[in-house]
Design brief:
- The protein has two domains: 2-87, ATPase, nucleotide binding domain (Nucleotidyltransferase, domain 5, 2-Layer Sandwich); 103-246, Nucleotidyltransferase, domain 5, CATH 3.30.420.40.
- The two termini are 14 Å apart.
- The protein has helices at residues 36-50, 70-81, 108-120, 154-163, 184-211, 224-228, 241-253; strands at residues 2-7, 11-18, 21-29, 59-64, 86-87, 125-130, 133-139, 145-152, 216-221, 236-237.
- The radius of gyration is 19 Å and the shape is globular.
- The strands form two sheets. The protein has a five-stranded mixed β-sheet with strand order 3-2-1-4-5, with helices on both faces. It has a five-stranded mixed β-sheet with strand order 8-7-6-9-10, with helices on both faces.
- The protein is an alpha/beta fold.
- The protein has seven helices and ten strands.
Length: 254
């Protein structure tokens, strides 16, 4: 079994693969102050609930966009699994040519997502990852990672809106059916949720034109299903795209 770990700014996702099949996945809040011992207790509980013995895990692959937590998760793997994880970064084979000005600036999760998308679809591809930030990644017709766009995530936008206004309340991030809200909460939900649909459609259209048209558009991330349900631009929703990319990269390197 392979343990894939995706360390994001808001959540850490753990996934267990039996060969090519994702058999278990768990999500935990990202806490930079937690020690490797505390994460070990948490992961051990996940294993126990799912009937997994840590000795069944024969490999571990890690992608992290939270540098202070990377050594913490590495130590977790060493202590609980008795093995060093494969950490996605410089020197790791991915099979994807990166055309970014400085490839070292590209988040590991963006390359991992590109690997998974290219394994399932032909280029050009646009990946929209709805996470702490909303990230648009562009893959050329030749399968090269070209770069993309980064926008504030939906939750971040709401936090900024509420934090800088005196009377606007915190709202639930649910989709509304009309753009004209009839109370404050509906008005905010229309502006945030439907406004994000417009943002996504606009940026995807521009990126697709720059790629030469005909792009397959893939949604992933926590709110991918919610946003994708309000537009026809997406060809697929791949909730576990990053975990699948980690599995592929692990196999490529081992």
């Amino acid at each position: 079994m392979l343990l894939a770990i995706d360390v994001g700014n808001t959540h850490i996702i753990f996934g267990v693969y039996q060969e090519e099949t994702l058999v278990h996945a768990w999500r935990a809040h990202t806490d930079r102050d937690k020690t490797s011992d505390e994460y070990e207790v948490l992961l051990s509980q996940f294993f126990h609930i799912s009937g997994i013995d840590a000795r069944q895990i024969t490999g571990c692959c890690l992608a992290s966009v939270v540098p202070p937590l990377t050594p913490t998760i590495v130590n977790l793997s060493r202590h609980l699994l008795k093995r060093d994880p494969l950490v996605v970064g410089p020197g790791i084979r991915t099979g994807v040519k990166v055309r970014y000005d400085n490839p070292l600036e590209v988040g590991a999760d963006r390359i991992v997502n590109a690997v998974a998308a290219l394994a399932r679809y032909d280029g050009p591809i646009i990946i929209v990852d709805f996470s702490t930030a909303t990230i648009f990644d562009a893959i050329s017709r030749d399968g090269e990672y070209m770069g993309g766009a980064i926008a504030p995530g939906i939750g971040v936008s709401v936090d900024a809106l509420v934090g800088h206004t005196a009377k606007l309340p915190r709202i639930e991030l649910v989709m509304v059916s009309r753009a004209i809200g009839r109370n404050t909460v509906e008005s905010m939900q229309a502006g945030v949720m439907l406004g994000y649909v417009g943002l996504v459609e606009g940026l995807v259209g521009r990126i697709d034109a720059e790629l030469g048209g005909g792009s397959k558009v893939i949604a992933t991330g926590e709110l991918g299903t919610v946003i994708a349900g309000q537009t026809h631009i997406f060809h697929a929703i791949e909730q576990q795209l990053t975990l699948e990319g980690l599995r592929l990269i692990y196999n490529l390197n081992t």
